[in-house]
Write a structure and sequence with these properties.
about 575 residues; Glutaredoxin; four-stranded mixed beta sheet; alpha+beta
Length: about 575
């Protein structure tokens, strides 16, 4: 009996598997063919529909077996010598076990080849790789800003060793954006760091975490299916684009309220007034109205234009420009949020447009300059400048220091980013073909609509929108009355004394808290003693010990509360723009 095994010579598992089974002891002639060294055989197998990236192909008596069938066939033909050989042969002799375990083996093989830096047989599409390069370039800068945010920004949480590694890898990826392995390592660290940092109130954090969730889901799905990096981008890119559109939709919808449209308190005006000179000099009555309605109309236009090919390039440029302007405001630290938005806008580029950008003469000159000492010195000074400005608390100047990077991107997108005839975005625009991936978009939409359901108010993309939905009241133009069906926002408390940082902040600013949040604070810090007013009654010297039964009855598990967060509540009317937003 003669048997031929066609395998990937770069795969250590494929080379060792036949040796383990000792086929020559039982079948005699075994012909091993490394398809990387035999292009004619590889082309013939591919023409017949066999994918050697999915696993080996076994030819026996004129019939060919691939994947799980190949492993099952080899197990049947294997010898009985050696304990490990007998175990493997016995396990995979059962066809149903081979079918069940094969996706796991295929995923392990794919991870090993990826970790070793070995190219898949089919290779990756140059265009898909270019889109990844453009996205990972922006994602790397986000990671560096992530480090600065957690070190210096007021109200940030503990800095872990992972946070420091994220900053270093992010800086490297910003400059060397063509490394999938560095990208995967960075995303893994970001996910681990996100888990350690929870709970965090910021909107950029929840958006970043959903993007990370999409990256992880796409990676796991394509590893299990044995697919390459191009397939990963096809799965991930539509979800990234959908998250951006949902962000814009709620960025507009939350602002449709009485107080955002009031120039005396609108956040659009407050953010403009803290721009670097000479921009605040335009703070006139007519310009305030322009800032308010310009924000609403501009964000709505970006949403619509992103969805249609003829206007997509203009929408990408306008969206990046809009968020670059936001990053200049000294009202808060926005470059992190703006950089996430920039990265997601870039996913709307067609793969061919991304290739034109990455292979352009301008990009080549920049890469060449970064390889020289002067370029490396300027890069170090740029990263160091952002660090020093963040340390000084001058977030507006940091935005100005960050701005040349965005101007460069806008120039490249403007010159090369137009979709030519026949060019399309990677995969469907907003829906990923693996249907399970779209659950992430649905969850993000639900996260953003929670304030109107009477659920959480933090991390809902309620970004300085003057929105008020607490205490049986809503200032939203379309959703008046009490939010529901849940009632977490009905029961509000006025802090009086004691408590942690959040409690002291709310007390000093005259803000309120939800009762659920009060119980959450006391459960997390069991030594805290507070006094507050609830439903007209003053409760003094309350702590975990005095409210333990109430805490056990009301609160969800901590892992759930890491996502279930409430902003301090400003009960003034009209509601001014404040950091409680």
């Amino acid at each position: 009996m003669a048997i031929a095994i066609y395998y990937d010579g770069e795969c250590p598992f494929c080379k060792r598997y036949t040796a383990l089974l000792r086929l020559r002891d039982s079948v005699g002639s075994v012909r091993l063919v490394n398809v990387r060294d035999d292009s004619a055989t590889l082309n013939a197998l591919q023409a017949e529909g066999y994918d050697l990236d999915q696993g080996m192909v076994v030819e026996l008596e004129g019939r060919r077996y691939a994947g799980a069938d190949a492993i099952h066939t080899l197990a049947i033909l294997s010898g009985r010598s050696g304990l490990l050989n007998r175990i493997v042969a016995r396990v995979f002799r059962l066809a149903w076990i081979a079918i069940l375990l094969y996706p796991i083996l295929r995923a392990g093989r794919a991870m090993t080849l990826f970790a070793l830096g070995r190219e898949r047989i089919a290779g990756n599409s140059v265009e898909h790789q270019s889109l990844f390069t453009v996205f990972s370039h922006a994602w790397g800068l986000l990671a560096y800003l992530h480090l600065l945010y957690y070190i210096y920004y007021e109200g940030s949480t503990q800095v872990f060793w992972t946070t420091w590694m994220i900053g270093g890898l992010g800086a490297y990826l910003t400059v060397r954006a063509r490394s999938p392995r560095i990208f995967v390592m960075l995303c893994g660290l970001l996910m681990w760091d996100a888990w350690q940092q929870m709970p965090v109130f910021s909107n950029h954090t929840i958006l970043r975490n959903f993007v990370l969730l999409a990256i992880a889901a796409a990676a796991i799905y394509n590893l299990i299916r044995g697919r390459n990096w191009s397939c990963f981008m096809q799965s991930f890119a539509p979800i990234g684009r959908c998250l951006l559109v949902i962000m814009y939709v709620f960025g507009v919808f939350h602002k449709l309220n009485d107080d955002f449209l009031d120039p005396s308190v609108s956040c659009a005006v407050a953010l403009w007034q803290t721009m670097p000179p000479p921009l605040p000099w335009l703070d006139t009555e007519w310009f305030r109205w322009l800032a308010i309605y310009g924000t609403l109309i501009g964000e709505t236009a970006i949403i619509l234009c992103l969805l249609f090919k003829p206007t997509r390039q203009a929408a990408i440029i306008t969206g990046i420009g809009f968020h670059s302007l936001l990053a200049l405001s000294g009202y808060g630290f926005y470059p992190t949020f703006s950089t996430i938005a920039v990265a997601l806008h870039l996913l709307f580029l067609s793969p061919e447009a991304a290739t034109r950008i990455t292979t352009s003469i301008q990009s080549a000159i920049l890469r060449g300059g970064l390889g020289e000492r002067k370029g490396q010195l300027l890069t170090i000074l740029w990263f160091a400048g952002m660090w020093l400005l963040m340390k000084s608390g001058n977030t507006s100047s940091l935005g100005l220091f960050w701005l040349p990077w965005v101007v460069w991107l806008i120039y490249l997108v403007g010159k090369y980013g137009r979709d030519l005839n026949g060019e399309k975005t990677l995969g469907p625009t907003l829906l990923s073909r693996p249907w399970i991936m779209n659950v992430i978009s649905i969850l993000f939409f639900f996260n953003c609509i929670t304030p109107y359901l009477g659920l959480k108010t933090a991390q809902s993309m309620n970004m300085f929108a003057n929105l008020a939905v607490e205490g049986d009241y809503s200032n939203h133009l379309l959703l008046r009355g009490k939010p529901g069906p849940f009632n977490y926002l009905d029961d509000i408390v006025k802090p009086l004394s004691g408590g942690s940082h959040v409690w002291a902040y709310a007390t000093g600013e005259g803000l309120y808290l939800t009762y659920y949040d009060v119980l959450n604070i006391l459960e997390r810090d069991r030594n805290t003693v507070v006094s507050y007013e609830r439903a007209g009654m003053v409760h003094e010297n309350q702590s975990y010990a005095t409210l333990e039964s109430e805490i056990d009855r009301v609160l969800h598990p901590r892992w759930f509360r890491n996502w279930f967060l409430f902003r301090p509540i400003d009960m003034r009317s009209p509601k001014p723009c404040s950091l409680s937003q």
